[in-house]
């Protein structure tokens, strides 16, 4: 992280509580209109009843993805580019949903928001989530700011962890190994005893890795940047009465390893330790026509970086310690007002704190608060549905702002959903942008107006479907880094504008033993800087992507899957360490093909294997950093009961 400060100084300018059972049983990765989701409306509704684009990564698909990381899984979703998903393990990744910059997609765990209060853009590192702890994922595309607040500009990714299932306790163990001397082990227990449910998962991962930075000298003496992860996840539910339940969520993750000095630059002694702690406590009171939920969560991230002297690092010793904590408390009220109206209302309070120390600069303990009240009214009459909502926010630094959602849709002949959305969203300035040595306490939030229209058409119910979306997103008061001639050589200011637009389309086919998803996505943007100069440069974001996901069950016990994705050209920004000047470089397009095979050897034993980047494609995601060549993971999962 010290590299970031060095570059800036040089002037580069650079949930829900207890999820309803129907949602937890989602079985399809497509937008099947009868599937029930909670992320889009914060209450269980069928996709046919809501005018939003929601994608489900089902429990079945998660089970077929145990040889992949969470960023790799999300990178296969239409409209999502997870830049750096195939870099060396432990390197941070960036999620770009519909072309929006990183930090504009809100990450949830079981409906609780997770952010990193110490990060420049508040973004959360999804390398903190082992795949074996995830049940399924719901992805809302488009603005979700009315119901979720800041950062839900381009969409929301809700990671739903494993919850207790069944009437008895069962245990599972999983072992896997593969390329780069990578080994994963996990164990879990899951089930219910009377009114108590428990899902406990423990996982361990170690990888010898490969050199994260590109060696332009060709001498091949860069160190392998290793990665080690220890993680535990607990989901505990207690039924107090038939109408009152408690839920506890807890996740602990510790990542350690080594990093390069930066792009094209090795460092033999640069080490990191990242600790992630997430805890959530919730209560749900079932009413005759709705429910009341209270959620309280604590999200803490500690990033520690140390670097001993080396040939490239001439400091006697350098370090950085970033601590970020976010406490969130929310009360949500869902109620049916009769045959035609449902109401979802809530109040939310978020407290953010960070303290950062380093050999380069220090951020003394600072904090801010944001309090919100929101309400959405859902109307339904025959084939017509509509959401009308608003949210009022008061921030302790910049004051107040308001967001809204207008979302009509029609569901024709029980198979065709047409929808449109007009919504606003915002991204509050981070504590770093407000209070760091480059900070500006007068920053206002970035504000966005989004337009979307599309359709979901089940041509043949539960067999063949076609989906398409058009979107436009206009963002004002974009926070940018303004270079200065004198120390601190830069400051964050509002002033830029960004105008994005694009489309997505996908076709899904499901017949006995066979499923296929083919998609195409296009996103482009126009960035206008504070001086009014227009560019078409959205770093690391391709204009065009397309791909296919195919799965076939040869026999009752044998499955085979193949994933293909094309990623178009991108622009990345480089830095000349001699002249301290930045430059733009075009990264070539590339094609990735992965394969998965899974065999249920018995009712308790499953054996799986993943071969990734089958054709050993040579490509770059981040300028100056290496990506994985052909690699594999193989393992087994055994159920004990």
Summary keywords:
Maltoporin, Chain A; 6 helices; five-stranded mixed β-sheet; single chain; globular; 641 residues; mainly beta; 22-stranded antiparallel beta barrel
Give structural notes:
The radius of gyration is 24 Å and the shape is globular. The chain is built from six helices and 34 strands. The protein has 641 residues and is mainly beta. It has one domain (2-640): Maltoporin, Chain A (Beta Barrel). The longest helix has 8 residues, at 2-9. The strands form five sheets. It has a 22-stranded antiparallel beta barrel. The chain has a five-stranded mixed sheet with strand order 3-8-9-6-7.
Biggest β-sheet strands, sense, barrel? 22 strands, antiparallel, barrel
Number of helices: 6
- Give the overall shape: globular
Terminal Cα span: 46 Å
Question: What fraction of the residues are assigned to beta strands by DSSP?
Answer: over 45%
Helix-and-strand structural type: mainly beta
The CATH topology is what? Maltoporin, Chain A
Radius of gyration: 24 Å
Helix content: under 10%
What is the CATH domain class?
Mainly Beta
Number of strands: 34
In oligomeric terms, what are we looking at? single chain
Average pLDDT: 89
Q: Give me the CATH architecture, please.
A: Beta Barrel
> How many structural domains does the protein architecture include?
1
Corresponding CATH superfamily: TonB-dependent receptor, beta-barrel domain
Low-confidence stretches: 1-30
């Amino acid at each position: 992280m010290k590299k970031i400060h060095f570059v800036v100084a040089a002037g580069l300018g650079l949930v829900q509580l207890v999820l309803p059972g129907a949602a937890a049983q989602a079985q399809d990765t497509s937008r099947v209109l009868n599937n029930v989701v909670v992320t889009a409306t914060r209450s269980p509704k069928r996709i046919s009843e809501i005018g939003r684009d929601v994608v489900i990564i089902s429990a079945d698909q998660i089970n077929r993805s145990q040889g992949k990381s969470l960023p790799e899984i999300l990178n296969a979703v239409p409209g999502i580019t997870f830049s750096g998903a195939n870099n060396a393990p432990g390197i941070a990744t960036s999620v770009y949903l519909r072309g929006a910059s990183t930090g504009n997609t809100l990450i949830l765990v079981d409906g609780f928001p997770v952010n990193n209060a110490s990060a420049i853009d508040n973004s959360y590192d999804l390398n903190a989530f082992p795949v074996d702890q995830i049940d399924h994922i719901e992805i809302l595309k488009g603005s979700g700011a009315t119901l979720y607040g800041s950062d839900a500009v381009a969409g929301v990714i809700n990671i739903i962890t494993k919850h207790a299932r069944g009437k008895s306790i069962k245990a599972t163990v999983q072992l896997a190994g593969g390329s780069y001397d990578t080994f994963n082990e996990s164990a879990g227990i899951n089930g219910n005893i009377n009114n108590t449910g428990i899902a406990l998962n423990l996982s361990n991962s170690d990888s010898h890795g490969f050199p994260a930075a590109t060696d332009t000298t060709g001498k091949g003496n860069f160190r392998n940047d290793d990665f080690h992860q220890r993680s535990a996840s607990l989901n505990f539910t207690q039924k107090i009465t038939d109408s009152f339940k408690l839920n506890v969520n807890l996740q602990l993750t510790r990542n350690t390893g080594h990093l390069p000095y930066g792009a094209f630059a090795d460092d033999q002694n640069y080490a990191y330790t990242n600790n992630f702690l997430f805890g959530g406590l919730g209560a749900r009171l079932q009413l005759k026509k709705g429910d009341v939920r209270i959620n309280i969560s604590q999200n803490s991230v500690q990033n520690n970086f140390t670097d001993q002297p080396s040939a490239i690092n001439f400091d006697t010793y350098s370090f950085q310690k970033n601590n970020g904590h976010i406490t969130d408390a929310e009360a949500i009220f869902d109620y049916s007002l009769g045959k035609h109206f449902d109401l979802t209302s809530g109040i939310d309070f978020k407290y953010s704190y960070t303290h950062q120390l380093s050999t380069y600069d220090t951020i003394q303990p600072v904090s801010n608060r944001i309090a919100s009240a929101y309400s959405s009214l859902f109307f339904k009459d025959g084939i017509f549905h509509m959401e009308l909502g608003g949210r009022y926010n008061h921030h302790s630094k910049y004051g107040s702002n308001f967001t809204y959602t207008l979302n009509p849709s029609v569901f024709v002949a029980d198979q065709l959903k047409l929808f449109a959305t007009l919504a606003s969203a915002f991204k509050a300035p981070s504590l770093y942008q407000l209070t760091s040595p480059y900070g500006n306490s007068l920053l206002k939030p970035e504000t966005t107006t989004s337009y979307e229209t599309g359709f979901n058409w089940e041509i043949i119910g539960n067999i063949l479907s076609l989906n398409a979306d058009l979107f436009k997103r206009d963002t004002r008061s974009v926070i940018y880094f303004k270079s200065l001639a004198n120390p601190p050589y830069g400051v964050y200011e509002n002033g830029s504008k960004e105008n994005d637009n694009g489309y997505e389309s996908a076709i899904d086919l499901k017949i006995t033993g066979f499923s296929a998803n083919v998609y195409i996505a296009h996103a482009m943007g126009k960035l206008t800087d504070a001086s009014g100069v227009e560019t078409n440069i959205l770093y690391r974001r391709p204009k065009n992507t397309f791909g296919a996901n195919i799965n076939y069950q040869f026999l009752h016990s044998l499955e085979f899957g193949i994933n293909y994705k094309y990623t178009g050209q991108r622009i990345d920004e480089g830095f000349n360490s001699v002249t301290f000047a930045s430059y733009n470089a075009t990264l070539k397009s590339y094609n990735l093909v992965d394969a998965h095979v899974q065999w249920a050897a018995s009712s308790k034993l499953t054996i799986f294997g993943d071969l990734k980047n089958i054709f050993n494609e040579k490509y770059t995601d981040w300028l100056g950093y290496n990506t994985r060549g052909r690699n594999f993971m193989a393992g087994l999962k055994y159920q004990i009961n």
